[in-house]
Amino acid sequence: MDLPNIEAYLCPHDVQAIDKWSQDWAWLAGGTWLFSEPQPHLRVLVDMQSLGWSEIIVEKDNLVIGATCPLIKLLQYPWQLEWTAVEGLKSAVSVLAASLKVINVATMGGNLCLALSVGTLAPIMIALDAKYEIWNLRRESHLIAAADFQIGSRQTILQPSEVLRRVLIPVENLKRRVNYQRFGIAATDPALAIVVSTCNSDNSQLRCVIGASIPAPRRIEFDDDLNLDKLPSLQNINFIDNPKASAIYRREITQILIKRSLHQLTCNNH
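Above: the chain's sequence. Below: its structure in C-alpha cell form.
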C-alpha cells in the first residue's frame, strides 16, 4: 500500500545520525505491516536496513540475533544440532499467518516491536529467557527481559525514539527441549491461542508461556513433580473476549494446549 502522507524517507548508517524524533516518525524494518494499512499519522520513515543489524552470532554465552534479521534467515541458518530449542524458534516462524514473500522481508525486531497479541515469536523468546538490548538515539543501551517487554496488545516498554537493537538468548537455554502449540480456526488465520513449553533434558525447570489468547504473553511456572491431571487454574487470567472467540473459549482452548504441550514435551523424553 502506498503511504502518500510520508514527507521524508531517511536511511541512516548509524542511529546517532538521527538527532531528533517526533511523534509522526516511525522506524521502518521489513515494512510488511507498516505498508499493509494506512498510516495517516506518519510523516517520516527511518529505514533500519542500512544499520546492518541482521547478524546471527554467538557472543560470550549468548546467541545474538540482530533486530533487522529477516525471519527467513532463522529457518535457513545452519544451527548447531545440540541446540534443540531452535525447533521451537523455527515453529514460531513457520506458523506465521504470512506468505513466504512476507517471511523473506519481515524481521525479528519488527515482529517483536509490533507486539500483536497473536505474535508468534514473543512467547518463544520468553520461554527461553531471552533479553532485548534497547538503544536510544545516543546509542546508550540497556537490557530488558523478554517477559517485561510487551505490556499489552500493540504495547511495549519502548519510549519514543528508542529501538530494539538485538535479541540475546542464553546458549545454555538453547539446549532445552521445546514444544510449540498453536490453535486457530484455519491455518492461515491468526492464532486464538499459543502455548510454548520448555524443560531441561531431565524434565526439570518445566514452564510454559501462553500467548494469542491474552493481550501480552505470560509465563507460567510449574513444579517439577507436576501432575498433568491437576494443572493450575487459569481463572484469574484475563483472556481476550471479542467476536472471534469469547474469553471462556480462549481459556478452555489454552488449558487444552497446555496439557497437550506438557504431555508431548515430557513423554517424548521417555
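The longest helix spans residues 247-267.
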